[in-house]
Specification:
alpha/beta; TIM Barrel; 2 domains; 5-stranded parallel sheet; 9 strands
């Protein structure tokens, strides 16, 4: 949400999202950067985070921006901010990041350099998660983003492998920009989940229900998990480390 639009920030914080990104970067005009920072400080500075509240993240301006240092100073002073989303992240940029006093960094992979650096980025101590930025990346690489996503299979899989190898949580998928195309959103979210992503960014509250349903376990998956647990309890009592469930061999 644009940091200078306090109404939209407040609405997002009550939308039912798991996390909210307060944006100081692309959603804010260059002439509004300082005002956006002040508005963010006012709204988040008086916020008292409850356990059930969404996680608050802030997307700062990139390190090469004249606004970057002021953004980082403001974020360090806000106890309610749990993470910094670093745009156009690559290894060189993150190695220059003055990380002292910052919460964990969500590395936004939205350049070719960032994709190729993903494994190195994921191993950096300050990085807590990887996030795919499909809009800027598709512009740089001159491809069209489609709902079924064949053009992104390699990139998505690369990020999943990089995160897993570094012990990070599953990556966060990028936004589906057409808020009126819920079917396209559903298909893209399903593709991302099948490839190993654990979450997806939204640009409007209307997208939340589709994304929540896409990433929630289905009734079939829950029933399968219950059968596996019951089968393993039986197998352990019999001294076996493997068993069969519905004709499929499963082990630890």
């Amino acid at each position: 949400m644009p940091a200078d639009n306090t109404y939209r920030v407040a609405k997002a914080l009550g939308s039912g999202a798991d996390a909210v990104i307060v944006d100081l970067e692309d959603a804010v005009l260059p002439t509004r950067k300082a005002a956006a920072r002040d508005a963010m400080t006012e709204v988040l500075g008086r916020r008292r985070q409850a356990p059930e509240d969404p996680i608050v993240l802030v997307r700062v301006n990139g390190l090469d921006s004249e606004h970057s240092q002021a953004d980082l100073v403001a974020v360090r002073a806000l106890a309610s901010v749990r993470g910094v989303v670093m745009p156009k992240a690559d290894r060189e940029t993150l190695e220059r990041l003055p990380a002292e006093g910052l919460p964990c960094v969500i590395a936004l992979i939205e350049t070719a350099a960032g994709v190729l650096d993903a494994a190195d980025i994921a191993r950096l101590r300050i990085v807590g998660a990887l996030m795919l930025g499909t809009v800027d990346l598709s512009t740089e690489l001159a491809f069209e983003v489609t709902a079924d996503g064949p053009e992104l299979i390699y990139i998505r899989s690369h990020l999943v492998l990089a995160a897993a190898a570094a012990g990070l949580p599953s990556p966060i998928d990028g936004v589906w920009p057409d808020v009126d195309d819920s079917e396209g959103l559903r298909r893209e979210a399903a593709m991302a989940r099948r490839l190993g992503f654990g979450a997806k960014a939204c640009i409007h509250p209307r997208q939340l229900d589709v994304v929540h349903r896409a990433f929630a376990p289905s009734e079939r998956e829950l029933a399968w998990a219950a059968k596996v647990v019951a089968a393993f309890e039986t197998a352990e009592r019999a001294g076996r480390g493997a068993t069969a469930v519905g004709g499929q061999m499963v082990d630890r």
